[in-house]
């Protein structure tokens, strides 16, 4: 059901903020924004109690897709968990199918949700799906399909009640992926994850470039529906070279 409608007029380059707690009765809502001019929207989520100051930010999505991929996630891993919010971006009722996979490509189960209303977001706690999902070590990735356009967001929560919000779902994949910040550190190093969303095996070539200009190239063969995780700080070629790198990943098929 529609809770409220907010109308406003913005001048060029102006912004408008909605306080969800005070203006929307602290509901867990979805929002649809319409305008006769191009807009950019951002959602900021904050903790309202005094247990911490963690927050998450994600951008609004302007159009939906009938298939989305997301990797990696922690369904339940030492207190970390992930919630998926899948929003019906069409004007008709629809269903969502969540297909879960382990990193090696083996199936970890399927969860189907029916009767999502237009504009409605359905939330699924991945640590509470019961027998539907059995992920190895509680981590893996998910493929979301629907007969109607949809958008999605992931919310990760850890033991300290901190959380981050991520809407970086792969929609169609890409054969060239640019990563401007890759950290090589034993304590806060980057992990790269490449999911093969093609129907056949693919090889991903990742070129890491040091600020000095030195290059490191990694070849990662990936089977269909599988994920290749790369711990940058664990690479022998990177030992003893803590720094920030840029990276370019290339493949013959979308990843």
Describe this structure in words.
The chain contains one helix and 16 strands. The mean pLDDT is 77. Strands 3, 4, 5, 6, 7, 8, 9 and 10 form an eight-stranded antiparallel beta sheet that branches. Strands 11-16-13-14 form a four-stranded antiparallel beta sheet, with no helix packed on it. A two-stranded antiparallel sheet has the order 1-2. Strand 4 (76-77) and strand 5 (80-88) form a beta hairpin. It is mainly beta. It has one helix at residues 20-23, and strands at residues 42-46, 55-59, 65-74, 76-77, 80-88, 94-101, 107-116, 121-125, 139-157, 163-166, 176-184, 191-195, 202-209, 215-222, 227-231, 243-250.
Record the SSE blueprint.
Blueprint: H1 20-23, E1 42-46, E2 55-59, E3 65-74, E4 76-77, E5 80-88, E6 94-101, E7 107-116, E8 121-125, E9 139-157, E10 163-166, E11 176-184, E12 191-195, E13 202-209, E14 215-222, E15 227-231, E16 243-250
Antiparallel strand pairs: 1-2, 3-9, 4-5, 5-8, 5-9, 6-7, 6-9, 9-10, 11-16, 12-15, 13-14, 13-16
Q: Level of helix content?
A: under 10%
From the N-terminal CA to the C-terminal CA, the straight-line distance is: 37 Å
- Alpha-carbon Rg, integer: 20 Å
Tell me the series of helices and strands, N- to C-terminal.
Answer: HEEEEEEEEEEEEEEEE
Mean pLDDT: 77
State the total count of DSSP E strands.
16
Low-confidence stretches: none
Major β-sheet, in short?
8 strands, antiparallel
Q: Briefly note the structural class of the backbone.
A: mainly beta
Measured by DSSP, the beta-strand proportion falls in over 45%
- The number of helices is 1
Overall shape: it is globular
């Amino acid at each position: 059901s529609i809770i409220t409608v907010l109308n406003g007029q913005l001048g060029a380059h102006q912004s408008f903020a909605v306080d969800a707690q005070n203006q929307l009765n602290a509901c867990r809502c979805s929002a649809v924004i319409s305008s006769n001019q191009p807009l950019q929207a951002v959602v900021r989520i904050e903790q309202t109690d005094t247990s911490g100051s963690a927050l998450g930010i994600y951008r609004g999505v302007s159009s939906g897709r009938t298939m989305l991929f997301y990797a990696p996630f922690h369904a339940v891993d030492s207190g970390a968990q992930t919630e998926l919010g899948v929003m019906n971006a069409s004007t008709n009722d629809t269903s969502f199918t969540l297909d879960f996979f382990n990193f090696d490509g083996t199936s970890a189960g399927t969860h189907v949700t029916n009767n999502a209303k237009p504009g409605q977001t359905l939330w699924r706690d991945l640590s509470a799906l019961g027998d539907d999902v059995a992920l190895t070590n509680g981590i893996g990735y998910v493929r979301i399909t629907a007969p109607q356009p949809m958008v999605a967001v992931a919310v990760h929560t850890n033991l300290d009640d901190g959380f981050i919000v991520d809407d970086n779902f792969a929609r169609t994949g890409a054969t060239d992926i640019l990563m401007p910040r890759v950290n090589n550190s034993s304590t806060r190093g980057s992990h790269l994850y490449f999911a093969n969303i093609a129907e056949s095996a693919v090889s991903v070539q990742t070129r890491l470039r040091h600020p000095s200009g030195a290059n490191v190239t990694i070849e990662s063969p990936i089977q269909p529906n599988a994920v290749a995780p790369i711990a940058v700080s664990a690479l022998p070629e990177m030992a003893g070279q803590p720094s920030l790198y840029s990276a370019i990943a290339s493949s013959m098929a979308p990843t």
